[in-house]
Amino acid sequence: MTMIRIRELLAVGFGCAAGAVVRMLLGVWLDGAMIDALAICIVNLLGCLLMGVLTSLIEVRQPDVVWAKAMTTGLCGGLTTFSTFCGDAVQLFATSPLLSLGIMFVSLAGGMALYVAGRHMIRTPRRKDE
Fold this sequence. Notes:
Blueprint: H1 3-30, H2 36-61, H3 65-79, H4 82-95, H5 97-121
């Protein structure tokens, strides 16, 4: 494994750890205020918005690939959690199918919309040929 790959691996690991800690803190903050599935939905939506913003910033600023991987694959990957989302949605579906389907729809459609919104928050320079 080359040195750059080891640096990327470590950067993603540290970014993921930071994202997981943020997710846990948000979960603690939201605990009791809503059902678990909705709290996970909110965290995932925030992660999608952040991913959109970071992706645009990376395109504009062109940081080192290690930094870019730490922020996207690491931080956003650790912050969002599709497996927890799926598990909570299935559990909720057993008692409240419509609410479960609603949260799934909001998570997916909202996540895509917020990713696009995040991309538009950072102005990317237009190419001369456009």
